[in-house]
Structures are given as structure tokens and as C-alpha cells.
Amino acid sequence: MTLAVILARANSKGIKNKNLALLGGKPLLYYTITAAQEAYGIDEIVCSSDGEEILEYASTHAIQTLKRPSILASDTVRSDEALLHVLEHFRGFDTFILLQPTSPLRTAIHITKALELFYQGDYTTLISVFRTNKEILKSFILDEDGNLKGICNNTYPFMPRQALPDVFMSNGAIYISKTSFFKKHQSFLSPKTAHYEMSQNSSVDINEQCDLLKAQEFLVRGY
User: Which end of the chain has fewer surrounding CB within 10 Å, N or C?
Assistant: First the structure.
């Protein structure tokens, strides 16, 4: 059985009450709840939050809610700690999928296809990504003595771009894991991690006001 987890903290530095900020006339949280409800392969949905307004909104959409203790709601708390709190309260699910409200353009189709990929390939974890510029592999960093070294190795900086491997970045939209693996390792990277590729447009991650404006533009255009 698969549990969908929506982590929606009340406070945000970039946008006040971000998870309830309006996008296309609807709260940001609406898009993730609706996508999870319309996707195939999810048995139950829970929204974890420290905010009463968020929990009340989530409950009106007929999903489970879990009040997050204040100790797990600060800026310094990692999402894996909040996830473990959810998994302790919702047992009996061998798999869970993390869906963050800050990815409003991730649809039910994306979720369904990611779950299909995860199960058909017998993976342990899955991370949604978008393809990005290979040139990053030609970058340098400084070692502890102030000397240049390749960001990955000392070969890539001098290879033709065409010969470089594909590069992907996590977009924060979909994370899937076997529950037992995550409880043991608190990580979405495993020896068998699938990647589910999404377009850059659908990968918009809402952190600042400009991200909301970009998402609004994509909604109007049908991205």
C-alpha cells in the first residue's frame, strides 16, 4: 500500500503563509491535494502541518491530517524528521510518496507515471528530476589548500561537451521510497534509485514571489 505525504509548514521566509498563497485563484496546497487524489496508485493521503489553517483547509478536501509538533516546524528541521513523524503515525504502508505543495505544476499524470516506473522497475527509491546543462561538469572548486580541482573529477573539465554524461537536478516535485529503507537511512538515494524526468516548466518550485508569477504564467499558457 502507498501513502502520499504532503508536508506543509505554516511559516515561510520567502512568501508569507506560502502553502496557502493564491495561484490561479486557488491556494498552492490545492494543486498538490488534487493531483494526489486524481493519481492512480495512492491508497491514502495525509497532510502534515503545524498550521491550523492549513490543516483545516486540507480536511475540507477529505484527506487525513496530522498536527506537527512545533519542534518539527522550524526552519532548521529537515524534511526527513517530519517524514519520520508521519510514518510513525501512519503504519502499514510499505511505500510512501512525498509531494510538496511548492510544486503546483506537478500533475496526477506525473504522479501516476512515477509510481508506475517505481513499481515496474522494482526500485527502492525514486526522485523526480529535470535535465540541465552539462557545462556544470566542467566547473572547478577550490580544495582546502586553495588549489583548483574539478567539481566531480579532473577529467570532465577538459572533455568535449558532447562526451559528458547527462546531468539532472532534483525538482522537489516527487520522492518515492520503500518505507523500511527510509526509516533506516533517512534518504531518497539508494543503490536502486529511479529518476522520473519532468520538463523544466512543470518543475517550477515556489520559494519566492517571482516563482509564483512564473507558475501563473505557465498555468495560463497550459505549460
Answer: N
